[in-house]
């Protein structure tokens, strides 16, 4: 009996020793993560799949990884290699594309909700009279935030509008394409309208409201629309060479965006130069002067991290309760389509696939994305200027979804390592 007990004790001690020896220290896990991130992103740059990238990964109050790769601009309009290409920096300014929807517009709506100046269940017609019709009366601000209002998924506003007032009127006059609330159909137009509502409720232009109420209080000093007008940014990531893909959306019916009343030949204001400091999105640039609730913001990774930190801290900054915890929770509650208000929460998205419950984020067409896992206290901000390499032979831009998934999986692996799993 005594010998059996001794053998059991020896086995348990050996098992514990092996388990302990196999565990990895937080420092080693961090080093592994950084090495993996470096390998993934540098390989894409070396293969000329992306010109460059900036990434920041943070856990709780510690920045784990903050690094720039490749080039802010690699090619000119004729796809000639710049000599030399402009190096990427962690302070390079990016066209964040549809991250505008959450960084600017959704945050603006949250602030107005907090101040009880509007409610997410308010009907849109309360603010925009063209929605006071039998078909559109049931559309609410919630529907716009969740892409369930039944609006066109995309429409080339610039064929029929040349400023924001004309754009607002045009969207208001367009018929619905889908039943209200029946399905999620991602639509820029809904967020253009949310920008209009912010202006109506606040009595201020969208860009002024956001600067005064979001960017200044959060010290996001490098977040703005139309950065070339300030002339103060040393490094700006170049995006596309004109708008070749958007032009294809108008001309190529196989993409599914053909609109019967739009004759592609009736407008020819397409840009014929490399975009750098001008918003890539055609509706934002051609029809809204570079300022829209759907796209238009430029920012740097550190600024974006400040807003993400506020969201992760339930609306708190180091100094104030910037947005109430109640409002944060309202906007980060999943609907029947598994998404929040403004923020995406469906963990089938490549940039947060298989994330823990409560994960949220968003992506942008230029190659930007934000992924947040509140349960782990982890956030990832990834900025890629994928369009500067130009269109591929198939007429599309390089697909960054597999890359986003690889990076997110590396972060999940890091979390498991520090938990000792």
Care to describe what's here?
This protein has 421 residues and is an alpha+beta fold. Helix content is 35%, strand content 12%. It is built from twelve helices and nine strands. A six-stranded antiparallel β-sheet has the order 3-2-1-9-8-7, with helices on both faces. A three-stranded antiparallel β-sheet has the order 4-6-5. Helix 2 runs antiparallel to helix 12, helix 3 runs parallel beside helix 6 (188-202) and helix 3 packs across helix 7. The longest helix is centred in the first third of the chain and has 21 residues, at 2-22. The chain is globular and about 65 Å long.
Q: What kind of oligomer do you see?
A: single chain
Global Rg: 23 Å
Strand sequence of the main sheet, in spatial order?
3-2-1-9-8-7
Unreliable stretches (pLDDT < 50, length at least 5) are 8-21
Taking the sheet with the most strands, its summary is: 6 strands, antiparallel
Number of alpha- plus pi-helical segments: 12
Quote the beta fraction: 5-15%
Residue share in helix: 25-40%
Shape, per Cα inertia axes: globular
Rounded mean pLDDT is: 94
Which H/E pattern describes the elements? Answer: HHEEEEHHHHHEHHEHHEEEH
N-to-C span: 34 Å
Structural class: alpha+beta
Total strands: 9
């Amino acid at each position: 009996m005594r010998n059996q007990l001794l053998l059991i004790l020896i086995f348990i001690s050996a098992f514990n020793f092996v388990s302990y020896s196999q565990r990895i220290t937080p420092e080693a896990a961090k080093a592994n993560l950084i090495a993996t991130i470096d390998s993934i992103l540098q390989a894409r740059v070396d293969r000329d799949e992306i010109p460059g990238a900036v990434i920041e990964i943070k856990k709780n109050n510690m920045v784990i990884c903050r690094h720039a790769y490749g080039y802010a601009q690699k090619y000119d309009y004729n796809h000639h290699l710049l000599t030399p290409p402009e190096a990427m920096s962690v302070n390079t300014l990016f066209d964040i594309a549809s991250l505008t929807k959450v960084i600017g517009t959704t945050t603006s709506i949250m602030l107005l909700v907090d101040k009880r100046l509007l409610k997410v269940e308010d009907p849109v017609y309360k603010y925009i009279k063209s929605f006071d019709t039998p078909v559109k009366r049931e559309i609410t601000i919630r529907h716009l935030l969740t892409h369930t209002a039944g609006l066109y998924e995309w429409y080339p506003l610039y064929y029929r509008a040349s400023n924001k007032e004309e754009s607002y009127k045009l969207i208001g006059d367009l018929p619905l394409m889908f039943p209200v609330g029946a399905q999620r159909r991602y639509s820029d137009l809904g967020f253009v309208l949310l920008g209009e509502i912010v202006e109506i409720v606040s009595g201020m232009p969208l860009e002024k409201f956001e600067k005064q109420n979001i960017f200044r209080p959060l010290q996001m000093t490098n977040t703005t629309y139309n950065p070339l007008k300030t002339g103060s940014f040393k490094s700006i990531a170049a995006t596309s060479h004109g708008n070749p893909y958007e032009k294809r959306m108008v001309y190529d019916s196989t993409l599914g965006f053909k609109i019967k009343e739009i004759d592609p030949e009736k407008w020819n204001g397409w840009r014929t130069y490399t975009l750098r400091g001008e918003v890539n999105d055609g509706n934002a640039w051609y029809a809204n002067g570079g300022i829209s609730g759907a796209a238009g913001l430029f920012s740097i990774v550190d600024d974006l991290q400040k807003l993400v930190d506020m969201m992760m801290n339930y609306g708190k900054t180091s100094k104030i309760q910037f947005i109430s915890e109640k409002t944060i929770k309202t906007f980060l509650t999943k609907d029947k389509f598994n998404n929040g208000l403004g923020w995406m929460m469906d963990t089938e998205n490549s940039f947060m696939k298989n994330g823990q419950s409560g994960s949220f984020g968003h992506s942008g067409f230029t190659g930007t994305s934000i992924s947040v896992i509140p349960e782990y206290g982890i956030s990832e901000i990834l900025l890629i200027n994928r369009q500067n390499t130009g269109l591929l032979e198939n007429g599309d831009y390089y697909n960054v979804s597999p890359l986003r998934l690889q990076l997110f999986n590396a972060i999940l692996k890091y979390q498991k390592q520090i938990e000792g799993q």
